[in-house]
C-alpha cells in the first residue's frame, strides 16, 4: 500500500500547492473557506483535522465539515477560526500528516474621529506629521493627500512618506507647504482604504529658521532579519536646512551589487532576491553643509528548511535492518523529528532516532507503516513521507522458474541460477538423479560440459515459512561453424554485391543472422541492404553502393547457445572528393597561379585536375587554359592563362580518377587581375543622320570584361574627304556608343572618314577600321502635288499623289499622316512608303468616319512641307449579322447551299452579294466563290477529304462576319455511292429539321 499526501491551500487565496498561510478579508467571513487535503491509498484513506494541535471533533461542530479530505469552514469567526491547521490521512496500513497551514483574518479599522491640532512651524524648519495608524491585520501602504483629493504629496528629496510608520516627513518647510494634510491607509489584502482627519500645517510669523545640521528621523532597526530570496527595504530620511543629501554604504566597504535600487531621492534602499552574501552592516549618511549624521543597522540572513536528502519507499524482509537518513539545509540549522503513522517516534530497544537518522534492527511485521521525517527551524517546518513494507513469505518461484529446456554447447561452462522470492532468504540445494549439492548463493556451475551432463536438474529452497522447488532440463549440443564468410572486396560506386555468410549447426538449434556495419547494427528498411538466404545462410545483398558504404562488415550468427562472427572489409571506389583550400597566389593582367590541397581519392588514385572559372560576365562555370596544360594527380599548383585584364575571377578545382570526375572544390576568394592597355577596339562603327550641321558617329561599346582597367574611354577620330589630318575627340564614358560633332561649316550629306579607338589609365588601345559616313542632310523642300483619296471600304482609304520631279535634297520616301479630329491626337496615324511609290492604302480605320490627310516627302533629317489637308469619309461598315439558317443538299458531287438573306441596318452598308470560302479538311488552301443571291452551287471533287465552308456578306464596307463553320463529312454506303453530312450549330440543325419536315409534308 502506498499512501501519498497531496495538500492544497484553502479557498482564499486560490492555489493548488501545499497549504500556505491564509489571509481572509473580514468582509468575506460570510463565505466558506476550504482547506484541501487529498491522499491516495488502498484502502482509500480517511481524514481528520487539528487546530493548534487539538483534534477537531466534527461531530460536535456545525460550522466545520469534511468533503472528501477537504475541511470546509462556514460562518467564519475572527476569534475561533484563527490558528494553525493540520490534516492527517490514515487507513489500515498507516497515517501521514500534512504540513501546518495558518488561517488569519485581514482587516483595517477606521481612524478615530477627532479634530487634529494644527502644526505651526517656521519656514526652513523640518516637520513630522504623524499618521496614527488604526488597528489592522495585513500589509499596509500609506499616502498623504494635500488639501483635497486627488492631490497627493509627491515625494522628492524634501518630502518623504515612510511605509514603515506611515508618517510624512518634510526636511525643510517652504511657504508652498502650507495647507491641510490627510493620511490615507490601504490594506493590500482587503483593498480597504481609510482617511485620517486633516492636519493643518501653518507658518509661524516670528522669523525664518536658520540653517542646521541633518537630523535623521527615519531609521531602520539595529538588526533586520531577512529571508532568503526576499526583497529587503531600508528607509532613511533626515530633517535639515539646507535639505540633506542621503547616501548609503556597506560597513565592510564592499560596493553594492547591480541589483540594488535607490528610490525617492535615495531615501529608500531596495535589495531584491536577498542572499547570504548580502548580510552585514549598512549605513545611511545624511549630509548638508552644516554637518552630517549617520544611522546604521545590520541585515541578518535566515532561511526556511529545504530538503537536500530524503528517504525512498522501502521493502525489507523480516529480521533485516532499516537505515534511513534525511537532511535539510536552512538558517538556523534545522532540528529533526520522526513520525510513524502521524505519531512521534522515540528511541527504544530496536529503534534509534538521532539527528535525521532512523535505524531499526531486526524488523518485525509491526514495524510496517508510513514514516515521516520532519525538519524544523523557527522560520518553517517541512515534512517528507516514505512507506516501509516488512515482507515475510515462504520461497516462491513464480516468475523466476528454471528454464524448461536449457541448451549449451559442449565444452562450455553452464550456470544454473536458483533465485526464489523468500523472506527471509532461503537455503538452497540442487539435485540431479541421486547427486545432491548445497549452494549458499543458489548458483550451480558446470564447467566443460559434455553429453553426460545432460539431464534434469531440480533446485530446492527452504526457509522457516516453508519449502518450494523448480526443475529444468539441460541439453548439450554440437558447436556451430561458419563454413563460408564474407571476404575483403573492392567495388565501384553504384554497383551491387552479395556478402556470403553460411553455417553448419546442430539441428536442434535455432539459428539467426544479423549484420553490423562499422559497429552499428544494420536495421531493416534501409533500401540499400537486404538479408537473403535460408536457415543456414544469412547473405547480405548491398544494392547501389555509395562511398559511405565502405568499411567493416560483420556477420553475426546467433544460436540458442553461442554467438559467432565473421569480418570483411569493403573498399568502395568512387570519383574523388572535392579538393580544398583553393588559393590564388600570384596574379598578372592575364594569368593567375593557383594552389590547392587534395581531397580523398575514394579508392582510386587521382589522375589529373581540372580548373574552372567564373566572372560577373560569364554564364556559369567555364573551363580555362592552364600551364601545364594537363595537371597530373600529383601536382597541386598550376597557372591559369588567357585571362582578361582588370576582371574579378573566382576559381574552383575538380579532381578525376579512373572512376570519374568528382564534385568541385569550394570557390576561391574573388581575385581581380592586374590592369593593362586595352587590346580591343569598338565594333560596328557607323553613323549618319542627325540635325543640320551635325556629324553623328556611332559604335558598339567594348564589353566591360575587355576594358582592361580603370578610366576607360573612347577616342573618336574623323576627317572630311580630301583632308589629310584627323580631328580627335575623347569621351570618358565607358558605356558611350554615340558622338555628335556640330559645325555650321559642314555641308549637308558630306562624306567623312571615321575611326574609333580606346584608352584607359594604362594607355591607348587600338582603333577600329576606317569607315565612311555622311553628315546630316536637310529635309526635302518640295511638296507632293495632286493629292487625292477615296474610300475603299469601311476600314480602308486609298491615297494617291504625284512624285516630286526635282528637289535638291535627297528623298527617301513619302509619309502620309491621317487623323479624325485635331482635338483627338490619339486618332492620328502615319504611313511611310519608299521614294518610288505614289500611292498607299491606309487600313484599320473606323467605318463611316471623316478623316483628314496630308502627304510629305522625308529623309533622315525629317519630313518636308505639305499641301493643306484633304478629307475623305470611310464607307459604312458591313452588316454585323452573319448569314443564318444555312441549308444544303448534295446530289452526287454537286452541293447546293441556301441561306437567309442578310438585311443591312441604316448605319450599315447595303449587301451587294455573298462570298463563300471553302477548303479541304487536310489542306490550308482556301477557295472563294461570290454570288449576288443567297444561294450557291459548288462542285466537290470525288475524293475522301472533308470540307469546311464559311459564308460572309459583301458590301461597300467590306466583308461581314462569317457564318458558323459548315463541316461536310463524306460517308461511303454499301453500293459504293457517296452521302454527305454537315456539322452546324444546334439552332441551324433545328431549322434544317423543320424545313425538311415542311417539304416532305408538301
Q: Which helices and strands appear, and what pairs or packs with what?
A:
Elements: E1 4-8, E2 22-25, E3 33-40, E4 46-51, E5 54-55, E6 64-67, E7 70-73, E8 83-90, E9 95-97, E10 101-108, E11 119-121, E12 127-129, E13 136-137, E14 140-146, E15 159-161, E16 168-170, E17 179-187, E18 193-195, E19 199-203, E20 212-218, E21 223-227, E22 232-235, E23 237-241, E24 245-250, E25 261-263, E26 268-271, E27 280-288, E28 291-309, E29 314-317, E30 322-325, E31 327-331, E32 335-340, E33 343-344, E34 351-354, E35 357-360, E36 369-377, E37 380-391, E38 393-396, E39 405-409, E40 414-417, E41 421-423, E42 427-432, E43 435-439, E44 443-446, E45 455-463, E46 466-477, E47 481-484, E48 489-492, E49 497-499, E50 502-504, E51 512-517, E52 520-521, E53 529-532, E54 539-542, E55 551-558, E56 563-573, E57 580-587, E58 592-597, E59 606-614, E60 622-623, E61 625-627, E62 631-632, E63 637-641, E64 648-657, E65 671-672, E66 683-687, E67 694-700, E68 713-720, E69 727-731, E70 738-742, E71 751-760, E72 763-767, E73 771-774, E74 785-791, E75 797-802, E76 813-819, E77 829-834, E78 839-842, E79 850-859, E80 862-863, ...
Parallel strand pairs: 2-10, 11-19, 21-28, 29-37, 39-46, 48-56
Antiparallel strand pairs: 1-3, 3-7, 4-5, 4-8, 6-7, 8-9, 8-10, 10-13, 12-16, 14-17, 15-16, 17-18, 17-19, 20-23, 22-26, 24-27, 25-26, 27-28, 28-31, 30-35, 32-33, 32-36, 34-35, 36-37, 38-41, 40-44, 42-43, 42-45, 45-46, 47-50, 49-54, 51-52, 51-55, 53-54, 55-56, 57-58, 58-63, 59-60, 59-62, 59-64, ...
Amino acid at each position: 500500500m502506498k499512501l501519498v499526501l497531496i495538500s492544497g491551500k484553502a479557498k482564499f487565496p486560490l492555489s493548488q500547492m501545499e497549504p500556505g498561510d491564509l489571509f481572509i478579508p473580514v468582509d468575506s467571513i460570510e463565505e466558506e473557506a476550504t482547506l484541501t487535503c487529498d491522499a491516495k491509498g488502498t484502502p482509500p484513506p480517511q481524514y481528520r483535522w487539528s487546530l493548534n494541535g487539538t483534534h477537531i471533533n466534527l461531530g460536535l461542530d456545525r460550522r466545520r465539515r469534511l468533503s472528501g479530505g477537504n475541511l470546509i469552514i462556514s460562518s467564519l469567526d475572527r476569534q475561533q477560526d484563527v490558528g494553525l491547521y493540520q490534516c492527517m490521512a490514515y487507513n489500515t496500513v498507516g497515517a501521514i500528516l500534512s504540513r501546518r497551514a495558518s488561517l488569519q483574518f485581514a482587516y483595517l479599522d477606521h481612524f478615530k474621529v477627532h479634530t487634529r491640532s494644527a502644526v505651526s512651524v517656521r519656514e526652513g524648519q523640518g516637520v513630522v506629521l504623524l499618521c496614527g495608524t488604526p488597528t489592522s491585520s495585513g500589509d499596509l501602504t500609506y499616502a498623504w493627500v494635500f488639501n483635497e483629493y486627488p492631490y497627493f504629496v509627491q515625494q522628492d528629496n524634501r518630502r518623504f512618506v515612510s511605509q514603515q510608520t506611515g508618517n510624512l516627513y518634510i526636511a525643510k518647510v517652504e511657504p508652498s507647504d502650507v495647507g491641510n494634510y490627510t493620511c490615507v491607509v490601504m490594506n493590500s489584502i482587503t483593498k480597504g482604504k481609510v482617511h485620517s482627519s486633516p492636519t493643518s500645517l501653518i507658518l509661524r510669523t516670528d522669523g525664518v529658521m536658520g540653517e542646521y545640521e541633518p537630523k535623521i528621523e527615519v531609521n531602520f532597526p539595529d538588526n533586520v532579519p531577512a529571508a532568503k530570496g526576499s526583497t529587503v527595504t531600508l528607509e532613511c530620511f533626515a530633517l535639515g536646512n539646507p535639505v540633506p543629501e542621503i547616501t548609503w554604504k556597506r560597513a565592510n566597504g564592499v560596493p553594492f551589487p547591480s541589483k540594488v535600487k535607490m528610490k525617492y531621492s535615495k531615501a529608500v534602499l531596495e535589495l531584491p532576491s536577498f542572499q547570504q552574501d548580502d548580510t552585514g552592516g549598512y549605513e545611511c549618511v545624511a549630509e548638508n553643509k552644516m554637518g552630517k549624521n549617520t544611522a546604521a543597522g545590520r541585515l541578518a540572513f535566515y532561511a526556511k528548511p529545504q530538503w537536500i536528502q530524503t528517504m525512498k519507499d522501502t521493502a525489507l524482509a523480516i529480521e533485516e535492518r532499516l537505515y534511513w537518513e534525511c537532511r535539510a539545509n536552512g538558517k538556523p540549522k534545522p532540528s529533526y523529528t520522526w513520525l510513524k503513522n502521524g505519531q512521534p517516534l522515540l528511541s527504544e530497544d530496536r529503534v534509534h532516532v538521532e539527528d535525521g537518522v532512523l535505524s531499526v534492527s531486526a524488523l518485525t511485521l509491526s514495524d510496517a507503516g508510513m514514516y515521516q521525517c520532519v525538519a524544523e527551524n523557527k522560520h518553517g517546518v517541512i515534512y517528507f513521507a516514505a512507506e516501509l513494507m516488512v515482507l515475510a513469505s515462504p520461497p516462491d518461484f513464480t516468475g523466476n522458474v528454471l528454464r524448461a529446456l536449457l541448451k549449451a554447447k559442449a565444452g562450455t561452462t553452464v550456470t544454473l541460477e536458483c533465485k526464489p522470492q523468500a523472506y527471509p532468504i532461503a537455503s538452497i540445494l540442487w539435485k540431479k538423479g541421486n547427486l545432491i549439492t548445497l549452494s549458499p548463493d543458489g548458483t550451480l556451475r558446470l564447467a566443460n560440459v559434455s553429453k553426460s551432463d545432460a539431464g534434469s536438474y531440480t533446485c530446492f529452497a527452504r526457509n522457516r515459512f516453508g519449502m518450494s522447488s523448480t526443475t529444468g532440463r539441460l541439453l548439450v549440443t554440437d558447436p556451430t561453424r561458419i563454413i563460408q564468410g564474407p571476404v575483403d572486396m573492392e567495388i565501384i560506386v553504384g554497383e551491387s554485391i552479395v556478402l556470403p555468410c553460411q553455417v553448419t549447426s546442430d539441428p536442434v538449434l535455432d539459428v539467426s543472422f544479423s549484420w553490423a556495419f562499422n559497429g552499428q547494427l544494420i536495421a531493416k528498411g534501409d533500401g540499400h541492404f537486404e538479408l537473403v538466404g535460408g536457415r543456414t545462410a544469412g547473405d547480405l545483398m548491398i544494392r547501389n553502393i555509395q562511398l559511405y558504404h565502405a568499411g567493416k562488415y560483420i556477420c553475426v550468427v546467433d544460436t540458442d547457445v553461442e554467438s559467432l562472427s565473421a569480418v570483411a572489409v569493403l573498399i568502395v571506389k568512387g570519383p574523388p572528393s572535392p579538393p580544398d583550400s583553393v588559393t590564388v597566389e600570384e596574379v598578372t593582367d592575364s594569368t593567375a597561379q593557383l594552389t590547392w590541397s587534395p581531397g580523398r581519392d575514394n579508392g582510386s588514385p587521382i589522375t589529373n585536375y581540372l580548373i574552372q572559372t567564373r566572372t560577373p560576365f560569364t554564364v556559369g562555370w567555364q573551363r580555362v587554359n592552364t600551364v601545364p596544360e594537363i595537371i597530373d594527380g600529383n601536382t597541386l599548383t598550376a597557372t591559369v592563362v588567357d585571362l582578361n585584364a582588370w576582371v574579378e575571377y573566382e576559381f574552383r578545382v575538380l579532381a578525376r580518377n579512373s572512376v570519374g570526375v568528382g564534385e568541385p572544390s569550394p570557390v576561391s576568394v574573388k581575385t581581380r587581375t592586374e590592369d593593362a592597355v586595352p587590346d580591343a577596339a569598338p565594333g560596328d562603327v557607323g553613323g549618319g543622320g542627325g540635325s543640320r550641321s551635325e556629324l553623328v558617329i556611332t559604335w558598339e561599346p567594348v564589353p566591360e570584361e575587355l576594358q582592361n582597367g580603370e578610366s576607360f574611354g573612347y577616342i573618336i577620330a574623323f576627317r572630311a574627304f580630301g583632308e589629310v589630318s584627323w580631328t580627335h575627340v575623347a569621351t570618358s564614358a565607358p558605356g558611350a556608343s554615340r558622338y555628335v560633332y556640330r559645325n555650321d561649316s559642314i555641308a549637308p550629306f558630306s562624306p567623312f572618314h571615321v575611326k574609333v579607338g580606346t584608352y584607359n589609365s594604362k594607355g591607348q588601345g587600338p582603333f577600329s577600321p576606317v569607315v565612311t559616313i555622311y553628315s546630316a542632310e536637310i529635309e526635302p523642300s518640295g511638296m507632293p502635288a495632286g493629292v487625292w483619296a477615296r474610300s475603299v471600304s469601311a476600314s480602308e482609304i486609298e491615297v494617291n499623289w504625284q512624285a516630286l520631279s526635282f528637289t535638291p535634297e535627297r528623298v527617301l520616301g513619302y509619309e502620309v499622316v491621317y487623323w479624325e479630329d485635331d482635338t483627338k491626337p490619339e486618332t492620328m496615324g502615319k504611313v511611310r512608303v519608299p521614294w518610288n511609290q505614289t500611292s498607299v492604302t491606309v487600313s484599320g480605320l473606323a467605318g463611316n468616319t471623316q478623316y483628314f490627310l496630308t502627304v510629305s516627302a522625308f529623309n533622315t533629317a525629317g519630313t518636308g512641307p505639305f499641301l493643306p489637308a484633304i478629307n475623305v469619309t470611310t464607307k459604312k461598315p458591313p452588316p454585323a449579322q452573319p448569314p443564318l439558317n444555312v441549308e444544303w443538299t448534295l446530289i452526287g458531287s454537286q452541293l447546293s447551299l441556301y441561306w437567309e438573306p442578310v438585311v443591312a441596318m441604316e448605319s450599315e452598308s447595303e449587301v451587294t452579294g455573298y462570298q463563300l470560302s471553302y477548303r479541304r479538311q487536310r489542306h490550308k488552301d482556301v477557295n472563294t466563290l461570290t454570288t449576288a443571291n443567297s444561294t450557291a452551287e459548288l462542285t466537290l471533287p470525288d475524293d475522301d477529304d472533308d470540307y469546311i465552308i464559311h459564308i460572309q456578306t459583301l458590301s461597300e464596307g467590306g466583308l461581314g462576319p462569317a457564318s458558323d463553320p459548315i463541316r461536310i463529312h463524306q460517308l461511303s454506303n454499301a453500293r459504293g455511292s457517296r452521302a454527305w453530312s454537315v456539322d452546324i450549330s444546334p439552332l441551324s440543325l433545328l431549322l434544317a429539321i423543320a424545313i425538311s419536315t415542311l417539304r416532305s409534308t408538301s
